[in-house]
Amino acid sequence: MPGFEVIDSQEKEIVNKIFDDGGILFAHGFDAARSNFHVREFEESFNDILKFNHSLAVSSGTAAIKIGLKALDVKAGDEVITQAFNFIATVEAILDLGAIPVIANIDNSLNMDVEDCESLITNKTKVILPVHMLGMTANMEAIMNLAAKHDLKVLEDCCEATGAKYQGKYVGSVADVGAFSFDFGKVITTGEGGMVTTDKVGIDKFSREYHDHGHENNPDFPRGRDTKTIFGFNYRMTEMQAAVGKVQLSKLQMILEMNKERYMSIEESLDKSFTRRQINQNSEPIFDTFIFQVKEKERRDEIINLLNKEKFGTKNLPDAIEWHCSFYWDHALSEKQIQRTEKSKDHLHTMIAIPIWLKRTPEDYLELVNKINKYIY
Ligand SMILES: *Cc1c(COP(=O)(O)O)cnc(C)c1O
Questions:
Q1: What is the pTM of this model?
Q2: Most CB atoms closer than 10 Å: which of 120, 196, 210, 276?
Q3: Are 317 and 300 in contact (CB under 8 A)?
Q4: How many Å apart are CA 210 and CA 208, to the nearest integer?
Q5: Separation of 89 CA from ligand 1 center, angstroms?
Q6: Which of 186, 246, 251, 345 is catalytic?
Q7: How confident is the model over 223-253, as pLDDT tens digits?
């Protein structure tokens, strides 16, 4: 997830220009004084480039998930089904609304096992929340069919998959709502930041008002006398973040191409006896992590040591597995949810993730893989 690797003078200059132009850092009001509208322009570019109908810039990916769930009318006591390989943010957003997180196991794609998800549906279930983990899309057709059958809504967590496609559509436009993150570890970054995407006018309208204290931004009134019908919260993005976001977004295609080149260098040279993460049908991943399986612990540890020694690291499998596998979240989940996903934990522990770094060349990856290939039997 390398957006920070391509930060250069362009990001610096656009932020400096805000200050040269009078330093309006807020997205709303100050109409007479402002010459920059970076937040609104970042949203428009996100719509243009990724073909969304509505994009709302917010303060983080976690905020985007919470706003999206709230827009889908998730209330206290409702159940939301998400998955065992994940990030704690989804569970936090569910809990923050007083709702109940229910955890489905993962399949060989390391995304939601749709059959397991179906077995968890009850009359309290409101939303299914699949996560496109590490750049690869979930099995959305099966998930959308399941949701239609049970009259449920779907929120896609796209935080690790900006630019990924499913059946030719960018993720974030497949389900009812998409949630994106631009934190400092993500494909493109604004330091902290997020986006809520949807096709539905009602969801966009609610999200805009909710993320901005209920402001309707009624054009007939100055902001200080703006109209309101709901109370909300403050999950706004600043002009500085959005300015950086515009520049980063203009680099997205380049990042994706560079990712793919490096990823393919691994795919083509890694010995065929290593089992790869299964790529779901009709999925165009963002190729920012290469994941493969090594079941024998001793051999796996040796390869992990090699990756650390060569300064590639292993991202969250296993580097940060405690933050990415629900089995470790006994501070947030019930014992029942933890126990039922133990098999996902065991599965994830057989995996090794090679992060794709833009600063490492395809040849660096080739050299690395030649060393890994020595660990075949
Ligand atoms: C990063 C991430 C989030 C949260 O995004 P923040 O912007 O850090 O709040 C949510 N879900 C997944 C899968 C993530 O990787």
A1: 0.98
A2: 196
A3: no
A4: 6
A5: 6
A6: 186
A7: 999 999 999 999 999 999 999 999 999 999 9
